[in-house]
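In response to the reviewer comment on reproducibility (Comment 2.3), we provide here a single inverse folding case reported in full, input and output, so that an independent group could reproduce the run without further information from us. The structure tokens appear first.
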């Protein structure tokens, strides 16, 4: 017993704290802890912490409802815990009986027993009431398993310990391992119904999260098949957009919004806990990074020490390196995953704020691409870069300070040398950063301008093509792109310079440090630095360089992110639309629906008896488009009550009808007076129908509940029934962006159907009947607006602005406006239709109530120009073809991108960058040789060693700067212009069907996100791939040089890396493509919401659209979030591989101790500090390159696979004066909208002589528009012959034909730009000719007055406004009414030189007076032209030379109007009689 006690007390010192035993003879030699240390630190401390925390956790779980059902797992847990607790009782009994125990033995045994009891309680509660495995239990079990291994080893080695304690402790360890496995089992399949929705990430435990196992199912799915959005698991509930929106909205509403960086502070405050929690693992990463320098120093000293000292220190170093590098892998994964989630949350918050703000903007402030750019570019850039400033800065500064301290320990005060270099670099970087913001802002504004222009043009391609402006629009857009790239060069120069500055500290800090040390040593006469000092200093420099580089990078990037925040904040602080209406408090008629919620931000008013019978009350109101503009509608006073079922507003073009209607919706500024309405929710139909890219049913139902019988009655009333029968999918047919597959009449009727279906108390409709032919209009009016119409049945009061004056007798109230916007007459038709009144001058013919004849019932559908029923038959495929290149990539894309970059330029750039990196490794080896020379007592050659080292550093800096500048300033802008040119050319040459079958948001996404990837992400990825590849090769070379035996490990490591990247890339590549694709619906929804904002607000659907935006935002976040998460999976795997490599190197070092050069080993270990970074960089940036190359793939596919509307054999060079006469000949023409589609013109033959005026008429869907489209070469002529001046049109490119013909489209086409650019797109007219054309249509004085008012000039000064000043004014479409915009387009037609004029229902949306004015201008100015005109107002065709009547694609009549009218039963005669009173 005495011998045992002697061993216990004297030799081992187990009753002392230690931590290590006193004598190497204890427990067979080797390192071990004392029992007191193990029981105190490895047992009592974790047990005490667990018991305390378990009590708090248990109390928090007691009151919660059960979330998981009972299962076999829960019983197994309890059984294991019971066995474990029993073993702790056994240990307590054994501890109490032995005399060889420390003062902590009993306490350790008691606490272990209490821990077992606590585990039983907490495990039961956690299993039943928590959705995920317990973090606390798992953390305790995993940590104590490691601790217990040490304790078990000690007990088995102790001579004084009986086998009983060791055996029980071993059994306890085994049970604890089983408990750890059981407690880590996930419970998603066991969740009860209310908690079934939780994501896989949220239900994962600490083990699954630490090892990123929760991503395995996604990775395997991506490896096996092509992924779709539906295959992605749901993202963490913390990233839920609705929840985030509420958080940021509350914070933003409570803060001082005008304060500088208020939005930044609001975002940070709302995510403060997430940010603080993310800092915890980041500081652990810093600690582990700094500890590597001490380990490397110990490793070098170990090699330099006497081998007879034994290998225990070597084994300890192996364990220490393993702990540090594995710990680094886990903490880095933890920190980066939290960062990803935090920044995804910030992106969700910002996009939510932008969308919600957009819904409150005044209509005059809506800038489509401005808000879109903020959402797609600024918010994205913040989410990608702001964490560098927000999260990384403090830990990086801490790492910087610690690394300087390590340098001080090694080299003394000269450690300030790299700090001086860093301060200089930071100063220069900060100076640059202050200039980067403005330059980036200019670049983004240029980008925004291009996107705005592109969006407008792509959304109006039908008009662009008909007007022959495709080439000019291509030139304009490409010119804007080149200007954008020119502007970006100023930013890129600073960016390239800053990248060079970022690398300067890592390049020159070492030079300054070692140079200063050498000089100081020489002055003081001290010895030069040793190998140990040199290697430790290099390691410290490596640790120092990383935060320096990151801080220098974070400064400009942070400024850039702050600039994005500023742009968003300025947008959020724009003035919101103020609803200035009051809500009438009244008793509703029995059949009238009431509003559910009162108006917000307005007060209820007390109403007199007159108000109680009003649905709308306006008192002395003035309406203007802004508070600074003159009133458009003046002194309006009217009352519209429930008995006024139909109120009709009439007046000349530009009198303010649309302004008045939007004033009733509070969409125009009310400068004076009172507007009161009975409900905040009003059905509204804009003059240009708003159609979403959905099915016809979705457009009609909107956000209302579906009512089958009501829906069917609406379909019949709006004459859509026959249209739907013609469509393959009926009302499920997708209509395309902006309803491109529908005609103007169909869109108008869908809009009317939506207004009826909503059953609002009031409906406001702006000239919705103008696009309908006479038969359809008659049907719709009687079924919808008539005495037995659906509006009357639903109790809806209707306010209708119209040019169809024949409807005035049906109105209960008429408001007549004059050209000054004043109500000159108000009352019923019978009251106002007296000689001398405005209404009387309209000469409305009273007609009897006619019964709809069979023609109405059998009317053909109002198809666009037949393309609806033909193109719509080619519906989107139910399943897209599986594209395996999404998984494995396509090297053709790299060749395409390489060609865009320039092969020679690419080679030069790679040579410069690789050469620069080579000098990094040479410099470190040179320092080692220098230190070895000092250790070996070599001669003092400081100048020699320092000079060569300086040369290496200088060459590295010069080559890096040249490579970066060459890429960013020369190569990228050139490739960007090339790629954009390829896309815009393909878009402008594409047939019209492409734009009807593709969402505008998808097309715009190519010009926004795809180009952003090509401009920034891809070049950055290329730089980093080459940079990290060169760095990795240096690491490998240095490691092999230090320990040649390590070469054996590289083949399996390379094999592992190959399979990892292959496994990883198949999923990551797809996720990047899905990320791009998932943004398109969000972008489309954004654009659609902006286009229909007035309608959405009128119907009261803002909340519904905000919710839809949240759904699409969540959908777009999923691929992006999962892509970043699997990137962290990759980093974790690579970090573990590096940890394994480090352990192998240290193992070989211990085994080959006497054969290893300490200097080379040190350099190798220093380089291995960066190996994880290099490997991660290679695979990660290669992945980014691979996945972002999807943008290039999309660009390539669009440029190469988009069909060209012209055939190769067609010419683009007819004679210069063609067409010189304007003679058309149709000879048995058959025409179709594409190969395999039915003919829309069938055997049509007629001749139009030069100078003749020919009208084309027929029911909607008869082939009228198809005839003009055939002339314009926008549909295919499959048989027969169509000639113009004896030239077969099929031999000439369609774009050339359209450029040689004048066309005036049904919808006015005006795009962003100046008045001059809009009226003279080709720039071929002088100011006097333009002014003359505008004077002829009566608009010059209007535009001149507008410019004079803007210049704060009086009316008498208008003559002082020059032509140039007026024409160089930005085009303001809101200033012109719909009719005035059509007059503007007529002025544009006057300036184009041709002998042929095509008119596509140009007067359908203007009043009779403007119609007459346009007809007069056309007759006078185009009297020598051949005119082909489609018209609904057949009276305007009476003086034409010929009329062509079409029916179902056949020519059924052709002749002079008078001759055709003589046949009372003829087609034209019947059509004319139906429309004669219109």
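Designed residues, in position order:
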């Amino acid at each position: 017993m005495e011998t045992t006690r002697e061993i216990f007390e004297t030799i081992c010192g187990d009753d002392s704290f230690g931590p290590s035993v006193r004598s190497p003879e204890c427990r067979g030699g080797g390192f071990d802890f004392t029992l007191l240390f193990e029981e105190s630190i490895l047992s009592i401390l974790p047990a005490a912490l667990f018991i305390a925390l378990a009590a708090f956790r248990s109390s928090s779980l007691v009151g919660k409802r059960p979330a998981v059902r009972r299962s076999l797992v829960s019983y197994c847990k309890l059984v294991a815990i019971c066995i474990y607790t029993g073993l702790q009782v056994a240990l307590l009994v054994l501890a109490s009986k032995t005399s060889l125990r420390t003062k902590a033995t009993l306490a350790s045994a008691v606490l272990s027993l209490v821990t077992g009891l606590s585990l039983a309680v907490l495990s039961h509660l956690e299993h039943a009431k928590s959705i995920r495995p317990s973090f606390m239990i798992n953390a305790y079990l995993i940590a104590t398993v490691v601790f217990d291994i040490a304790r078990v080893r000690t007990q088995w080695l102790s001579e004084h310990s009986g086998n009983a304690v060791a055996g029980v402790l071993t059994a306890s360890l085994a049970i604890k391992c089983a408990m750890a496995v059981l407690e880590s089992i996930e419970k998603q399949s066991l969740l009860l119904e209310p908690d079934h929705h939780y994501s896989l990430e949220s239900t994962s435990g600490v083990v699954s999260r630490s090892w990123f196992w929760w991503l395995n199912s996604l990775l395997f799915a991506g490896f096996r098949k092509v992924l779709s959005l539906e295959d992605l698991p749901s993202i963490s509930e913390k990233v839920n957009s609705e929840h985030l929106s509420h958080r940021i909205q509350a914070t933003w509403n409570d803060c001082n919004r005008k304060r500088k960086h208020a939005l930044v502070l609001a975002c940070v405050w709302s995510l403060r806990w997430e940010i603080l929690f993310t800092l915890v693992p980041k500081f652990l990463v810093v600690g582990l990074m700094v500890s590597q320098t001490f380990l490397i120093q110990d490793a070098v000293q170990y090699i330099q020490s006497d081998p007879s000292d034994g290998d225990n220190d070597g084994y300890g170093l192996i364990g220490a390196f393993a702990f540090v590098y594995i710990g680094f892998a886990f903490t880095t994964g933890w920190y980066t995953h939290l960062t990803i989630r935090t920044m995804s949350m910030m992106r969700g918050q910002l996009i939510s704020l932008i969308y919600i703000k957009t819904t409150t903007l005044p209509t005059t402030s809506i800038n489509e691409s401005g808000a879109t750019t903020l959402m797609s570019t600024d918010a994205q850039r913040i989410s990608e870069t702001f964490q560098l400033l927000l999260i990384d800065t403090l830990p990086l500064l801490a790492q910087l300070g610690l690394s300087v301290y390590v340098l001080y320990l090694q080299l003394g005060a000269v450690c300030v040398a790299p700090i001086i270099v860093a301060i200089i670099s930071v100063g220069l970087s900060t100076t640059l950063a202050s200039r980067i913001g403005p330059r980036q802002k200019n670049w983004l504004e240029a980008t925004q301008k291009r996107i705005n222009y592109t969006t407008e043009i792509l959304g109006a391609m039908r008009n662009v093509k008909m007007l022959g402006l495709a080439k000019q629009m291509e030139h304009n857009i490409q010119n804007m792109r080149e200007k954008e790239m020119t502007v970006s060069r100023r930013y890129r120069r600073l960016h390239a310079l800053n990248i060079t500055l970022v690398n300067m500290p890592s390049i020159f800090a070492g030079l300054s440090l070692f140079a200063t040390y050498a000089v100081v040593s020489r002055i003081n006469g001290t010895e030069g630095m040793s190998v140990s000092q040199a290697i430790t200093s290099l390691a410290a420099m490596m640790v120092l360089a990383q935060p320096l580089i990151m801080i220098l990078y974070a400064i400009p990037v942070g400024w850039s992110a702050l600039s994005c925040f500023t742009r968003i904040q300025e947008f959020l602080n724009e003035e919101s639309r103020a609803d200035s209406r009051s809500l009438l408090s009244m008793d509703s008629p029995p059949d009238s629906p009431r509003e559910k919620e009162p108006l917000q931000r307005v007060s209820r008013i007390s109403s007199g008896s007159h108000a109680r019978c009003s649905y709308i009350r306006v008192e002395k109101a003035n309406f203007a488009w802004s508070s600074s503009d003159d009133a458009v509608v003046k002194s309006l006073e009217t009352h519209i009550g429930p008995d006024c079922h139909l109120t009709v507003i009439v007046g000349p073009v530009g009198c303010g009808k649309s302004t008045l209607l939007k004033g009733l919706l509070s969409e125009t500024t009310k400068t004076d007076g009172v507007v009161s309405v009975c409900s905040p929710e009003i059905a509204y139909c804009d003059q240009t129908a708003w159609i979403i890219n959905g099915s016809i049913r979705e457009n009609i139902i909107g956000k209302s509940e579906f009512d089958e019988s009501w829906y069917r009655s609406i379909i019949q009333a709006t004459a859509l029934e026959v249209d739907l029968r013609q469509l393959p999918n009926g009302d499920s047919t997708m209509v395309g962006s902006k309803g491109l597959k529908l005609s103007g009449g169909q869109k108008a009727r869908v809009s009317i159907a939506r207004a009826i279906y909503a059953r609002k108390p009031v409906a406001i409709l702006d000239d919705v009947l103008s696009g309908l032919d006479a038969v359809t209009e008659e049907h719709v009016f009687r079924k919808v607006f008539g005495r037995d119409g659906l509006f009357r049945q639903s109790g809806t009061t209707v306010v209708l602005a119209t040019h169809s004056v024949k409807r005035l007798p049906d109105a209960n109230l008429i408001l007549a406006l004059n050209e000054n916007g004043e109500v000159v007459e108000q009352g019923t038709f019978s009251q106002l239709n007296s000689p001398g009144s405005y209404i009387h001058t309209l000469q409305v013919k009273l007609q009897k109530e006619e019964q709809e004849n069979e023609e109405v019932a059998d009317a053909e559908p109002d198809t666009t120009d037949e393309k609806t029923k033909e193109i719509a038959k080619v519906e989107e495929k139910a399943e897209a073809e599986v594209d395996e290149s999404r998984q494995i990539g396509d090297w053709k894309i790299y060749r395409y991108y390489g060609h865009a970059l320039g092969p020679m330029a690419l080679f030069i750039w790679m040579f410069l960058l690789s050469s620069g990196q080579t000098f990094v490794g040479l410099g470190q080896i040179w320092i080692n040789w220098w230190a070895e020379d000092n250790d070996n007592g070599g001669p003092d050659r400081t100048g020699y060693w320092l000079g060569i080292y300086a040369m290496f550093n200088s060459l590295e800096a010069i080559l890096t700067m040249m490579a970066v500048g060459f890429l960013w300033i020369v190569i990228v802008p050139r490739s960007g212009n090339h790629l954009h040119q390829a896309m815009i050319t393909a878009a402008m040459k594409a047939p019209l069907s492409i734009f009807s079958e593709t969402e505008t948001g998808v097309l715009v996404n190519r010009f926004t996100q795809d180009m952003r990837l090509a401009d920034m992400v891809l070049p950055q990825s290329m730089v980093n791939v080459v940079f990290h590849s060169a760095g990795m090769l240096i690491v490998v070379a240095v490691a092999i040089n230090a320990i040649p035996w390590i070469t054996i490990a590289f083949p399996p490591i390379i094999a592992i890396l190959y399979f990892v990247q292959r496994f990883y890339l198949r999923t990551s590549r797809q996720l990047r493509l899905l990320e791009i694709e998932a943004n398109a619906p969000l972008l489309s929804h954004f654009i659609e919401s902006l286009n229909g904002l007035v309608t959405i607000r009128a119907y009261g659907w803002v909340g519904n659209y905000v919710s839809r935006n949240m759904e699409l935002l969540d959908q777009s976040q999923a691929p992006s979030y999962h892509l970043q998460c699997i990137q962290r999976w990759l980093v974790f795997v690579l970090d573990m591989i590096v940890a394994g490599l480090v352990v192998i190197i240290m193992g070989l070092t211990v085994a080959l101790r006497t054969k290893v050069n300490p200097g080379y080993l040190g350099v190798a270990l220093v380089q291995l500090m960066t190996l994880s970074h290099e490997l991660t960089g290679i695979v990660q940036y290669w992945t980014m390159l691979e996945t972002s190359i999807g943008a290039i793939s999309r660009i390539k596919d669009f440029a190469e696979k988009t069909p060209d509307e012209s055939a190769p054999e067609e010419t683009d060079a007819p004679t210069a004066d063609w067409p010189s006469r304007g003679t058309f000949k149709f000879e048995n023409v058959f025409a179709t909208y594409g190969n395999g589609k039915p003919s829309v013109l069938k055997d049509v033959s007629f001749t139009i002589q030069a100078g003749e005026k020919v009208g084309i008429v027929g029911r909607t869907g008869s082939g009228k528009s198809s005839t003009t489209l055939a002339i314009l070469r926008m549909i295919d002529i499959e048989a027969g012959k169509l000639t113009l001046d004896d030239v077969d049109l099929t031999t000439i490119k369609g774009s050339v034909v359209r450029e040689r013909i004048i066309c005036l489209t049904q919808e006015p086409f005006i795009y962003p730009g100046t008045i001059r650019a809009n009226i003279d797109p080709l720039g071929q007219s002088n100011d006097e000719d333009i002014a003359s054309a505008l004077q002829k249509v009566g608009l010059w004085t209007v535009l001149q007055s507008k410019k004079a008012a803007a210049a704060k000039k009086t009316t008498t000064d208008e003559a002082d406004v020059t032509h140039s000043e007026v024409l160089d004014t930005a085009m303001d479409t809101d200033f012109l009414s719909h009719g005035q915009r059509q007059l503007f387009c007529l002025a544009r037609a006057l300036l184009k030189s041709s002998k042929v004029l095509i008119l596509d229902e140009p007067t359908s949306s203007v009043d009779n007076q403007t119609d007459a004015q346009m007809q007069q201008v056309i007759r006078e100015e185009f009297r020598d032209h051949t005119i082909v005109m489609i018209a609904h107002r057949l009276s305007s065709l009476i003086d034409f030379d010929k009329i062509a009547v079409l029916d179902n694609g056949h020519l059924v009549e052709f002749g002079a109007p008078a001759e055709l009218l003589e046949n009372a039963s003829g087609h034209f005669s019947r059509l004319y009689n139906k429309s004669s009173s219109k």
